[in-house]
Amino acid sequence: MRQFSAWLEVFNSGDRDECAEFLADHFPSRLESLDGVMAFRERTGGLELRKLERVSATEAAALVQERDSDQFARVELTVDATDPHVIASLNLAAIPRPTEFPIARLSEDEATIGIQDVLREAAAADRFSGAVLVAKNDQVLLSRACGLADRERELPNTLQTRFRIGSMNKMFTGVAVLQLAEAGKVELTATIDVYLSGYRNRGVAAKVTIHHLLTHTGGTGDIFGPQFRAHRLELRTLDDYVQLYADREPEFEPGSRWQYSNYGYILLGALIEKVTGQTYYDYVHAHIYKPAQMTATGSQPEHQPVPGLSVGYTKPPGTASWVPNSETLPYRGTSAGGGYSTAGDLARFGWALLGHQLLRPDSTQLLITGKADRGPGARYAYGFAVLRDSDGNGSVGHGGGAPGMNGDLRIYPQSGYLVVVLANIDPPAASRIADWVDARLPTQG
Predict the structure, then answer these.
(1) What is this structure's pTM?
(2) What confidence score (pLDDT) does residue 393 get?
């Protein structure tokens, strides 16, 4: 217990030199990970001890909560039985919030006031820079922007600022595929070789269905890694991605489990282009952005100026200063993610979806109904994440995150609430705010 208390005190201090000295003396195997330890300390704000679960001469287990969020974790620490009793292992894993530590639901007015307080505190500590919108049905209850869109020019974020949205593009891709299914142009149970004839890997082409791709159960893998970094600016079209990755074998038997797959959504974008004869970008503009009145959303190439687009800022490992994320960005956004939008546009998308302006009611229900388990209280639908908590306050939507960008859209069909949070700094800047709101909004309309 002495080593656990000492570790927690030093970690919470946030002092790099103190942490380095402690690790050298008491946890030498972790010293080489000092940069990661300090980054984790900054991201969490430190950890509060909430409950000791077990203690012995050589072991301790406890529940802790991040100081800057509602997130709980379990810490398990062991020490050597012999002098000087150095720490042998320390494991820290995020867990769902234990039921013995409930968060009280607030009234609508209380939640609205509370969100503003959280935003002011987070912005003052440089933990949030972006925009937030909370609505009930089609009425905006709160909309705020804070932080800087361009730190060099000292330009503030506004409600008209466009933010990169990462994987939130997957919602548009899911809607587009369901529109084509409605029109009889796509069969969700068909394998991809029906639409992408000549796809090189037959284990993918003949086994992976459109349903598998939409639900991340096809085993088609990711696009990020050494190949992406080597060809980042050469990958200009969806077909460029397909040509780079089309030889890969499935990572598991299609349909056997869930594993997030950006490449699966690249294949869906390629399918949309094949079936419609349009580029993915032209299709979603005409059939999603335009009917939803989303005038500030798109995926233009990064070298093309986009009015009002914020600069994304990231802190590389081992650094303490924000730098532009330009060296990490793809040539342009894709059907898997990387576009840009505003808080208002994403709210209009949610309203258009629930108002059946994009799909028929039965297709909308199919789109947002969970199909694949992806963790406690979480399922995946067709381009939408489905979250349920102990109160039954379920949301549908999607998040997005990468260096210098983070976003979240959560739509609550039961209560009528809608929450958009967008940030132009590293995750979890936006998702932390969205989680705070999620836990406190009333569950009934």
Answers:
(1) 0.92
(2) 65
Q: Which domain holds residue 362?
A: 108-168+289-440
Among 276, 302, 331, which residue terminates a domain?
Answer: 276
pLDDT of residue 444: 67
Q: What DSSP element (H or E) covers 73?
A: strand 72-79
CA distance 310 to 439: 29
Last residue of a domain, one of 95, 116, 143: 95
Per residue in 62-71, pLDDT tens? 999 999 999 9
Give the separation between CA 349 and CA 354, rounded to whole angstroms. 9
336-377 confidence digits (pLDDT tens): 999 999 999 999 999 999 999 999 999 999 999 999 999 888
Mapping DSSP onto H, E and C, the string for 125-161 reads CCCCCEEEEEEECCEEEEEEEECEEECCCCEECCCCC
SS3 assignment, position 374: strand
H, E, C per residue of 21-50: HHHHHHCHHHHHHHHHHHHHHHHHCCEEEE
> Which token pair is 426?
């590293």
